[in-house]
Design goal:
This protein has 13 helices and 17 strands. Helix 6 packs parallel to helix 7 (240-251) and helix 8 packs across helix 13 (361-381). The strands form 3 sheets. An 8-stranded mixed beta sheet has the order 8-16-14-13-9-11-12-17, with helices on both faces. Strands 1-7-6-5-2-3-4 form a 7-stranded mixed beta sheet, sandwiched between helices. A two-stranded parallel ribbon has the order 10-15. It starts with 10 loop residues before the first strand and ends in a 6-residue tail after the last helix. It has helices at 17-31, 47-61, 77-89, 157-170, 176-193, 213-224, 240-251, 266-274, 276-281, 315-319, 331-347, 353-357, 361-381; strands at 11-16, 35-40, 65-71, 93-97, 112-115, 119-123, 148-153, 200-205, 228-233, 236-237, 255-261, 285-289, 298-301, 305-309, 313-314, 323-328, 349-351. By secondary structure, it is of the alpha/beta class.
Length: 387
């Protein structure tokens, strides 16, 4: 993994859920004059998806080079293939990521858009309506999905551009020599970027040069935490190192808060709840978010470190899938994110150790069994990296 340093001079703007994200994304696509890259895990043909699709088509029709990467599994095989064919017919270059698992089990879970090499968007939002569940059920949500992204202007954008362009090329047909040369060029670009210091850095996770980059960034931040750390994720099932970093921070007096989504997948909830007793006994506060679907993957540590991106705190995101996070060292942006997280915590339900003790014995047995099965599967599909 290349050494991560921060690049200064970036204009970073927090976008809260689809109400702020999609208008900003549409504006950037509509104003593009030369090039648009868009990479996403889910791209649904609902009202929101159709607006984004039409904007991409119109950009291509006015001569913009538009390149789209859609995960083959995320949107559903048939829907992804149909959307890709539609875009291709309309002049938009489109590629599906890892169809039929031809290149292993990894999925692209990244959500990145770059327009004209000048403005970039990185976060957790897929291309799907905020009021529709993203689990394929099509069920309406009681309130808009809770999620975040960053709009980025400045010297970090070329780094993001090189990553999304590399993903585009890797999603196509490349021989081994070309893939090796691409990997080498990305390493060189990472070293050039790392000579600068400043406010923001792009972290990506893949299964070659950046296997543990995102986890290491969180381990380092938690290891240096002095006052407060808030971790927000819809799916919590990290390995032993991540959990140990959380509990060690809590035991040295840091307020560690885990805000976790519940209610979407019963099995995932069982796995997550299996961790509760050990975390609670070691001083970690746990808050469950029930108001609507929590999809945010954000964190803050103290007053000047924050992360916004696509990586959950689970085995798939930390050890298998392709992910992208922006890590910032910025008091203003961290304060903005902190305000949103405090509101989320206030809307959630804090879990106490006495609450878990009241859970029926069969539920605790089920949670433990779910954890054992999950850990075994993760160790198999991550070739032992999940621990």
């Amino acid at each position: 993994m290349p050494r991560v340093e921060f690049i200064q001079g970036n204009d970073l703007h927090l976008l809260r859920s689809g109400a702020e994200y999609f208008p900003a994304l549409l504006q950037a696509i509509n104003e593009a004059r030369n090039e648009v890259y868009l990479e996403t895990y889910i791209f649904q043909p609902d009202d929101t998806g159709l607006r984004i699709r039409q904007a991409l088509i119109q950009a291509a029709q006015r001569g913009v080079s538009v390149r789209v990467v859609i995960d083959w599994l995320g949107s559903g095989r048939e829907a992804a293939e149909e959307l890709c064919l539609t875009l291709l017919r309309e002049g938009v270059a489109c590629r599906l990521f890892n169809p039929w698992f031809r290149r292993g089990l990894a999925r692209t879970h990244r959500k990145i858009t770059v327009c004209d090499g000048q403005v970039a968007f990185v976060g957790g939002l897929n291309i799907i309506d905020d009021l529709i569940a993203d689990d394929g059920s099509g069920m309406p949500l009681p309130f808009p999905r809770w999620d975040f992204a960053l709009r980025i202007l400045g010297p970090l954008v070329p780094v993001i551009h090189s990553e999304v362009d590399a993903q585009w090329r890797k999603a196509g047909a490349m021989d081994l020599r070309s893939r090796f040369e691409l990997l080498r060029s990305l390493r060189q670009e990472a070293r050039i970027a790392s000579q600068q210091t400043g406010l923001a850095a792009l972290l990506v996770r893949d299964n070659l040069r950046n296997r543990t980059s995102i986890q290491k960034a969180f381990l380092q931040a938690l290891g240096k935490a002095k006052q407060r750390a808030v971790l927000v994720t819809p799916y919590f099932a990290p390995g032993r190192k991540f959990r140990r970093a959380m509990t060690m921070a809590a035991q040295r007096g840091v307020e560690v808060v885990l805000l976790v989504g519940v209610g979407q997948f019963r099995l995932q909830d069982a796995v997550t709840q299996a961790y509760y007793p050990r975390l609670l006994k070691r001083g970690v506060r746990i808050v469950e978010f029930h108001r609507t679907q929590l999809h945010a993957k954000v964190a803050i540590v103290d007053h000047d470190w924050a992360s916004v991106g696509s990586s959950n705190f689970d085995g798939l995101s930390l050890f298998l899938n392709h992910e992208s996070n922006i890590v910032v060292r910025d008091h203003r942006l961290t304060a903005d994110i902190d305000k949103e997280l405090r509101d989320g915590i206030a809307q959630g339900r804090e879990i106490l150790l006495t609450d878990y003790d009241k859970i029926p014995w069969w539920r605790r047995v089920y949670n433990g069994f779910a954890y054992i099965v999950y850990r075994a599967l993760m160790r198999i599909i991550t070739l032992g990296y999940y621990g």
